[in-house]
Amino acid sequence: MYHHQRIKYLDCSDNGDGRAEKGVCAGRKCTYTRNPHDDGRNTGRGGQEPRRNVPPLLFTLAPDDKYIRYTMEKAMYLVDETGLAQYNTLKEKGFYSNILGTSAVFSIFCDSISFDKKNMEFTYYGRQRIERRSNILMRELVTAGQLKRVPRTDNNPHGLLIVNWRTLLNKDIEQKTKSNY
Question: What's the pLDDT tens digit per position in 171-181?
Answer without folding.
Answer: 999 999 987 65
